[in-house]
Amino acid sequence: MSLAVVTANRLADGRVVYLGEQGWSTHIGKAAIADSEVVAAALLAVGQAAAVAREVVSPYLIDVAEAKGVPRPTLRRERVRAAGPTVRPDLGYQAEQEA
C-alpha cells in the first residue's frame, strides 16, 4: 500500500480539511499518514464518524508521497485542493498558507 491521508470538506464553510492526530486541519502537513491498510481503514472510520456527526462531508483517502517529512498529494486534483482555490494566490485564505 502507498501512503495515504484522509481528506474531506468542512461542513461549516466548505474548506478542504485533512484528518490529523489532533482532529481536522486545513493544512495537509498536519495530516495523519496511513502506512498500512489497517491504519488507513481506522483513519477513514474516524472520518466517516465525523461525517455522521455533520462536521465534514465526503471523507475519503488520498495517496500521498512524503517530501521532507510533509505529505504531498500524488494526484493533480488533490494538489489543487491542497493549495486552495485556483484564483490569484495573493487573495483569500491561500495567501495566508505557508509555501
What tags apply to this protein structure?
single chain, 99 residues, alpha+beta, 5-stranded antiparallel β-sheet, 32% strand, globular
What count of domains describes the coordinates? 1
Output the number of helix runs.
2
First-to-last CA distance: 28 Å
Radius of gyration using CA atoms only:
13 Å
Share of helix among residues?
10-25%
Overall average pLDDT: 91
In spatial order, strands of the major sheet run 3-2-1-4-5
- How much β-strand is present in the residues? 25-35%
| Parts with pLDDT < 50 across at least 5 consecutive residues | none
**Which H/E pattern describes the elements?**
EEEHEEH
Q: What about the largest sheet?
A: 5 strands, antiparallel
From the spread of the alpha carbons, the general shape counts as globular
Structural class: alpha+beta
* Number of β-strand runs: 5
Describe this structure in words.
- This protein is globular.
- The protein has one domain.
- It has helices spanning 37-52, 76-83; strands at 3-10, 16-20, 23-25, 56-67, 70-73.
- Helix content is 24%, strand content 32%.
- The model has no long low-confidence stretch (mean pLDDT 91).
- It is α+β, with helices and mostly antiparallel strands and 99 residues long.
- The longest helix is centred in the middle third of the chain and has 16 residues, at 37-52.
Topology:
Blueprint: E1 3-10, E2 16-20, E3 23-25, H1 37-52, E4 56-67, E5 70-73, H2 76-83
Antiparallel strand pairs: 1-2, 1-4, 2-3, 4-5
